[in-house]
Amino acid sequence: MTYSEEKETVILAGVWESAGGGSYDDFLHSMDELAELAAACGKECAESFTQILDRCTTALYLGSGKVEEIKEAAAEHGAQRVILNDTLTPVQLRNLQKELEIEVMDRTALILEIFRSRARTREAKLQVEVARLSYLKPRLIGMWEKQNRQGGASGSMSSKGEGETQLEIDRRTIDHRLADMRRELKVVERERRTQRKKRQASGIPLVALVGYTNAGKSTIMNSFVKSCSGEEKQVFEADMLFATLDTSVRRITGEKNHDFLLSDTVGFIQKLPTGLVEAFRSTLEEVKEADLILQVVDYSDPHYKDHMDTTLSTIAELGAGDVPMIIVYNKSDQRDDTAFPRRGPQVRGENGRLCGSVFISARQEESIDLLREVILEELYGSFTEETVTVPYSRGGELAAIMAHGEVLSQEYLEDGIRLLVRSRSKAADDVKRGGF
Ligand SMILES: Nc1nc2c(ncn2[C@@H]2O[C@H](COP(=O)(O)OP(=O)(O)OP(=O)(O)O)[C@@H](O)[C@H]2O)c(=O)[nH]1
Ligand SMILES: [Mg+2]
Fold first, then answer.
1. CA-wise closest residue to 134 among 297, 237, 277, 330
2. By the 8 A CB rule, do 88 and 142 touch?
3. Alpha helix (H) ranges present in 101-139?
4. Measured from the CB, is residue 311 less than 6 Å from ligand 1?
5. Which run of H or of E encompasses 398?
């Protein structure tokens, strides 16, 4: 699955299953997304075919008439590949390839290819490779048949029997490699767990940016980073699907000892191959451990509600359904009906839980200030003013109060100092409990 420097010309095709329950509109949207995925992978789409069927055909995915049409179009455009909008069975892939006589690839393989080209760290590379080999294994037979037909790399393999033997060897090789890589991943995961424990021990709350791919998560991360530690800790952001694959965590300075850690990770998409969710589980595990999830939504996308559904179900799948959440309606600058930055109404989440919401643009400083305020409120409570009297003998307590709150006035009494303190309510509770 490599692609050359020159753009590969492809043809897209998808089936809307009228008996499948999904709406036709959603189907068309997923076809648009397929085109974006292909573009993100450096492919040029020459034509796109859609077909309405009760159910996809078990032999070919598409109807045979449509396959003929695609074959003609592929010849006309000089296309090198046809990309299908679903995950195909090994049989469908094999048959289609035979009929079309050019490369065939399904949505899962396309996403895997993007992930593969983007993976940077050893962990991400291993995760993608595990997902890719698991996907490839049941589909090897089709590749062998193709090689035989073309007299490809192993041209000497003339009889079927030899091919089958080679297939067995290949499957075993894959099994060995998978076992090796899973072992290596376990080691990396252990390191990640150790890091996470250290972080938890530090007591600094973790806030996780989560959302559909291209929603603006990395841009929000960078705006926060820029506001407190300069440019050098920036993460990669770009107008492309799956710009981020590796999780990064940055410490964001709040105010008065109220810091938090912000994590940015891989985005979601509808029909994200389950193999990838599995492979990325340890990376996404951060989300489960978070004290707060920021669900970033591209509010300028007409399909933002579907994206939210996909994100919520993936969060639930990861076992992070109970983590408090704030919905961040980002890219509000791209809408002419939305004032921003501002707080939005409370939104009822999947399990009936209420989440706060906020309308922002990640590129605007005031927006980031508001978002910081909303995060701090959620983590440390809203501001309250309270009078406390600290005995002269307890200087440590006085220092803790000054570190976490703002002293508005002070009065020296006989038995101690009376202070009027403005602080976040959760922090004030801790002071009262002697938690500092
Ligand atoms: N107009 C506008 N563009 C934005 C805003 N936030 C992000 N973008 C742009 O949207 C594109 C995607 O942003 P990223 O931050 O890379 O998105 P992401 O959610 O990290 O995406 P993945 O890493 O692919 O999951 C970039 O071109 C950003 O410049 C915003 O508030 N307004
Ligand atoms: Mg990103």
1. 277
2. no
3. 107-118, 122-136
4. no
5. helix 395-404
**What gap in Å lies between CA 357 and CA 84, rounded to an integer?**
37
Q: Are 8 and 113 in contact (CB under 8 A)?
A: no
Q: Record the tokens describing residue 25, joined without a space.
A: 């509109």
What CATH superfamily is the domain 203-380? P-loop containing nucleotide triphosphate hydrolases (3.40.50.300)
The CA-based diameter of the chain, rounded to the nearest angstrom, is: 101
Sign of CA dihedral 283, 286, 288, 289: positive
Mutate to test the pocket of ligand 1, among 115, 213, 218, 300 (most ligand atoms within 8 A of CB): 218
Angle made by CA atoms 167, 173, 176, in degrees to the nearest 5: 145
Q: How far apart are CA 198 and CA 206, in angstroms?
A: 12
How much distance in Å is there from the Cα of 374 to the middle of ligand 1?
Answer: 21
Cα Rg, the chain, nearest whole Å: 27
| Ligand 1 atom closest to the CA of 222, numbered from 1 | 15
Per-residue pLDDT of 221-255, as tens digits, reads 999 998 876 566 778 787 778 877 777 888 898 77
State the chain's mean pLDDT as an integer. Answer: 86
Spatial contact of 1 and 113, defined as CB atoms under 8 Å apart: yes
The region that residue 117 occupies, defined by phi over 0 for left and psi between -120 and 50 for alpha, beta otherwise, is: alpha
Residue located nearest, by CA, to atom 16 of ligand 1 = 237
pLDDT tens-digit series, residues 348-372 = 876 777 899 999 999 999 999 999 9
Pocket flag, ligand 1, residue 365 (CB < 6 Å): no
Ligand 1, pocket-test mutation among 237, 307, 363, 371, most atoms within 8 A of CB: 237
Cβ(330) to ligand 1 under 6 A? yes
What is the rounded CA–CA span in Å between residue 225 and residue 243?
A: 18
Q: Give the single-character DSSP code of 351.
A: T
Residue 197, number of CB atoms within 10 A of its CB: 11
Superfamily of domain 8-117: GTPase HflX, N-terminal domain (3.40.50.11060)
Q: How far is the CA of 239 from the centre of ligand 1 (A)?
A: 6
Length of the chain: 436
